[in-house]
Design a protein that fits this description.
The structure is a single chain. The chain has helices at residues 2-14, 50-67, 90-95, 127-142, 194-205, 225-238, 253-256, 268-284, 310-321, 343-352, 412-420, 433-438, 468-479, 485-496, 501-522, 553-557, 581-588, 598-601, 616-640, 647-679, 694-699, and strands spanning 43-45, 80-84, 107-114, 117-123, 151-154, 160-164, 210-212, 244-248, 290-293, 327-331, 362-367, 391-396, 448-452, 563-564, 604-605. The protein folds into 3 domains: 2-154, Chitobiase/beta-hexosaminidase domain 2-like (Chitobiase, domain 2, 2-Layer Sandwich); 163-496, Glycosidases (TIM Barrel), CATH 3.20.20; 519-699, Alpha-d-glucuronidase, C-terminal Domain (Alpha-Beta Complex). The protein is globular and about 80 Å long. 54% of the residues are buried. Strand 3 and strand 4 form a beta hairpin. Helix 11 (412-420) runs antiparallel to helix 14 (485-496), helix 13 (468-479) crosses helix 14 and helix 19 runs antiparallel to helix 20 (647-679). 37% of the residues lie in helices and 10% in strands. The chain binds beta-D-glucopyranuronic acid.
Length: 708
């Protein structure tokens, strides 16, 4: 009897636990429901290289999980899935599929016949393409697409699809809201956590092929021999998944690590130091990707410390990396200490003149907007303005300015908005930011998109279940910047939660409006940079006492008794002139423009009549209130979806929405209280007064807010 009880208990422990904690991301591979047929019977893979082994393992894992049967790698049977390249697989070579459109990293998936047997082939020119094809094939099943007559060709439109980790060597993550860093620097290179492999699997599944391991506010120790060995261990783990490692390089490292007196990029000793450093790194990591650099920005050292230009700095590093095939991603997020000019204009002003001066292995990495990852920004005017320089897009995946990990904001919709914006480069319509980034406008082959990661040690990786969608959407849009964020949300929701249409449709709708909702309750009508000091958590529109004018929210909203908004027209900072005339025209006229950008570009009287017929003052209050009440709608919607979601993840999301509802009201009340103290106008009829006094909101302090 006792033996029987023990056996039953052991069996129960071995059974898959129903509860889900989000660790599996969109790669859950739970059995499909009856009625959806997976024809696959076996996997045929002859490849012996690490990416092909990883591809076969992933396919085995995915197919076995999804079909609920053991699907082995081995014998060729009817409906086998054959994977490989023409050189690794005799079967693929025999079938000789047309791989011309698959390029270096793409793939084809095709149902066909081999010796009169029905088979599915996943083929590519290179091993990594096979792995990407496997993930695509699994996605078809995960999203319940028909598998009977497949004929898919896909290849990435952008070459470098890179995560930027703002992770520090002490384990903290700048702007990280998902726990500490996943890099266990102390125990590397010896201890290689399984989580590193799962990280690589997740990234490869969306086509991410690079990762910058350390913060752009970097520490020269990352370039020391001990840390190069640690980085090499991570590179070894990621290599089978097609992911290269990069490091943020501190510009003054020749001084701090090398003991030199200067980091002047034109100094021969400095140049020699970087060359030797590059040689040392490549000896340990032959496929090292290169350097990301934040220079002369927010106190970081850079070439301007020596009266040299950004191009001088970037080209020195490029020269050191070039013999090894490495590249430099030089960030354009700069605003100078001396210049009192509109911060919006500074990156463009510094970089535009350098167009054509960068070495051919340098990309200039530009944030999506000219200020700083605000809930809404017009696209950065540098896109389309530097035809001779490959411009790399930098998105922020971590939600520094959008409510950390407790507010639900699907950023796929934000990324798509930025990518679809028309730069009218060369005066031509249709030269969107996406096309500039893809290199299609100016014929660049070196192209890239970066995303500031939202990954940490939290069990669910991203701090919240819905923040996983932002990592996912980033990867998908980096692969194809012209993809639809709605379709991506649809895939994600199916893979992460459920394929039930009664779940998918409302969730996707909710995701698609969620970022607008955040913009409404934080920064309506083009307002920006109103977050509280340092941590950027919660409202601080009253802040006016910081050292630099352009760190203060009052600098950005410029509200007084008469009106509000930043005049970036000719009458003001004239930042509008940095856009091509056709792009500028879209924002030039308050009467006709998209009012979601109104106060970004115009200083407008409170009594101005907006399109709704209300006064601007009333519209500000109404939009803040709408944002707050839309969160209540999201919360109710999620509550109605309880039957479709496992208990733990349902509760986790519900709790976050409760927090978001409370904080959206806080944003609304604090902002309305503050702006009313300036506008001195009554609230529109039917809108109740803020719950607490302005003094109360101003007194709130958050000394331990994360990510700061
Ligand atoms: C800002 C962040 C800051 C970063 C900086 C950057 O607040 O932590 O260091 O951007 O991108 O958004 O360099």
């Amino acid at each position: 009897m006792l033996r029987w009880i023990v056996a039953v208990c052991a069996l129960m422990l071995a059974l898959p636990v129903q509860a889900e904690d989000g660790y599996d991301l969109w790669q859950r591979y739970r059995p499909v429901e009856a009625g959806y047929a997976i024809p696959a019977t076996s996997i045929v893979s002859e490849g012996t290289t690490p990416p092909l082994i990883a591809a076969a393992q992933e396919l085995e894992r995915g197919l076995s999980g999804l079909s609920g049967k053991v699907i082995e790698v081995g014998t060729l049977r009817d409906n086998a899935v054959i994977i490989g390249t023409p050189s690794s697989s005799a079967a693929i070579a025999l079938l000789n599929p047309d791989l011309t459109k698959a390029g270096e990293e793409g793939f084809i998936i095709r149902t066909t016949r081999l010796n009169d047997r029905p088979v599915t082939i996943i083929a590519a020119n290179r091993d990594i393409g096979v792995l990407y094809g496997v993930f695509e094939y699994l996605k078809l099943i995960q999203t319940r697409q028909p598998l009977t007559s497949l004929n898919i060709t896909d290849a990435p439109k952008v070459k470098l699809r890179v995560l930027n980790h703002w992770d520090n060597l002490d384990g903290s993550v700048e702007r990280g809201y998902a726990g500490t860093t996943i890099w266990d620097w102390w125990k590397l290179p010896d201890v290689r956590h399984p989580r590193y492999t799962d990280y690589a699997r997740a990234n490869a599944s969306v086509g991410i092929n690079g990762t910058v391991l350390n913060n752009v506010n970097s520490n020269a120790v990352s370039l020391s021999p001990a840390y190069i060995a640690k980085t090499a261990a991570l590179a070894d783990t990621f290599r089978p998944y097609g992911i290269k490692v990069y490091l943020s390089a501190r510009f003054s490292a020749p001084i701090e690590e090398g003991g030199l007196k200067t980091a002047d990029p034109l100094d021969p000793q400095v140049r020699a130091w970087w060359k030797a450093k590059a040689d040392e790194i490549y000896a340990a990591i032959p496929d090292f990707g290169g350097f990301l650099v934040k220079a002369n920005s927010e106190g970081q050292p850079g070439p301007q410390d020596y009266k040299r230009s950004h191009a001088d700095g970037a080209n020195m590093l490029a020269e050191a990396l070039k013999p090894h095939g490495g590249i430099v991603m030089w960030r354009a997020f700069v605003y100078s200490h001396e210049k009192p000019d509109d911060r919006h204009k500074q990156a463009y002003d510094e970089f535009k003149a350098l167009d054509g001066q960068f070495a051919d292995n340098v990309l200039v990495q530009v944030k999506n907007g000219a200020i700083d990852f605000q809930p809404r920004e017009p696209f950065h005017p540098m896109f389309g303005a530097m035809p001779k320089t490959p411009l790399m897009m930098e998105f922020q995946i971590t939600k520094e300015y959008l409510g950390f990990s407790t507010h639900l904001a699907y950023l796929g919709q934000y990324y798509e908005e930025a990518l679809k914006a028309d730069t009218f480069a060369g005066g031509k319509a249709g030269n969107t930011v996406a096309k500039v980034v893809e290199g299609a406008v100016d014929n660049h082959t070196l192209t890239g998109i970066a995303g500031v990661a939202n990954i940490g040690m939290d069990r669910n990786w991203s701090g919240s279940d819905f923040d996983q969608a932002n990592w996912y959407a980033f990867g998908r849009l980096a692969w194809n910047p012209q993809a639809s964020s709605r379709a991506i949300a649809d895939d994600w929701a199916r893979m992460t939660f459920s394929n039930d249409p009664a779940f998918v449709a409302p969730v996707v709708d909710m995701m698609m409006t969620s970022r607008e909702t955040v913009a409404d309750y934080m920064t309506p009508l083009g307002l920006h940079h109103l977050m509280d000091t340092g941590h950027h958590y919660g409202p601080g529109p009253w802040v006016d006492n910081l050292e630099r004018a352009d760190w203060n929210p009052v600098y950005y909203h410029k509200a007084d008794i008469n009106g509000i908004g930043f005049d970036r027209m000719k009458t003001g900072s004239n930042a509008i002139a940095q856009y091509t005339p056709k792009a500028a025209k879209l924002w030039a006229e308050p009467k006709t423009m998209d009012e979601r950008y109104l106060l970004w570009f115009h200083h407008v009287p409170w009594d101005y009549k907006v399109k709704s017929g209300r006064t601007l003052w009333d519209e500000v209050v109404v939009t803040y209130s709408k944002g707050a009440s839309d969160v209540t709608t999201m919360r109710n919607r999620w509550a109605s979806l309880k039957p479709y979601v496992d208990a733990d993840r349902f509760e986790a999301v519900a709790t976050n929405l409760m927090i978001q509802e409370r904080e959206a009201r806080w944003w609304r009340d604090a902002s309305v209280a503050y702006f009313q103290s300036i506008s001195k106008r009554p609230l529109p009829a039917g809108y109740s007064a803020p719950e607490k006094t302005l003094e109360y909101y101003r007194s709130l302090k958050f000394p331990y807010a994360p990510g700061n």
